[in-house]
Amino acid sequence: MNNSVPPNTTPLLHVPPATDSANEETLLIPRLEEQLHIDKQLVETSRVLITKTVREEPQTVQIPLISETIEIERVELNQYVEEPPLTRQEGDTTIYPVMKEVLVIQKRLMLVEEIRVTRRQIQTQQTQSVPLRREDVHIERIDASSGRPAPHGPSL
Predict the structure, then answer these.
(1) N or C: which end of the chain has fewer CB within 10 A?
(2) Least confident segment among 28-37, 57-66, 120-129, 143-152
(3) Which pLDDT does position 156 carry in this prediction?
(4) In a domain, 86, yes or no
């Protein structure tokens, strides 16, 4: 057997032949294995510049406002009554009886007057100027290598 190494190669392992009890030679052959190593590297290709502006625009709105007035009317009656009348409601008007005791030969109730309270609602339109805000966003892609805006491509 030839144990010489061809030129331009390096022997990996040279083992002299071994002999066993039956006078046979055993030759050991080294086994090679390749391994793969994969690595990733982060590369900046471009940047994005986002600008947001807030605008206020006055908006005119109509707002219905309700105000309430009260009318008071005094009605003289000067009538004698047997029992005090109760407070009563006639439509939007509430009537409150007002009495006094009058000294006569007999004591009797005299209805002197009624106070009539009427509620009225008045609706008016009032114009108000209300500022409304609106945001606008502008996006610009910047090429990482040149620092200049990138040519228009697909939008973000």
Answers:
(1) N
(2) 143-152
(3) 46
(4) yes
> Residue 155 has what pLDDT?
47
Domain that includes residue 69, residue range: 63-126
Distance CA 52, CA 67 (A): 43
Closest CA to 113 of 100, 131, 123: 100
Residue 79 lies in a domain: yes
For residue 94, being part of any structural domain is answered with yes
Give 97: exposed, middle or buried? Use CB within 10 Å, 0-12, 13-18, 19+.
Answer: middle
d(CA 15, CA 29) in angstroms, rounded, equals 9
Find out whether 134 and 54 touch, Cβ atoms under 8 Å. yes
- Total domains present in the chain: 1
Examine the pLDDT at 50 and tell me if it is beyond 80.
yes
Identify whether the C-beta of residue 132 lies closer than 8 Å to the C-beta of residue 55: no
Task: Return the amino acid letter for 126.
Answer: Q
Residue 17 clears pLDDT 70, i.e. is over it: no
Statement: the pTM of the whole predicted model exceeds 0.70: no
**Residue 29 belongs to a domain:** no
- Cβ neighbors of 111 (< 8 A, separation 6 or more) are 77, 78, 79, 80, 81, 85, 97, 98, 99
CA distance 25 to 42: 56
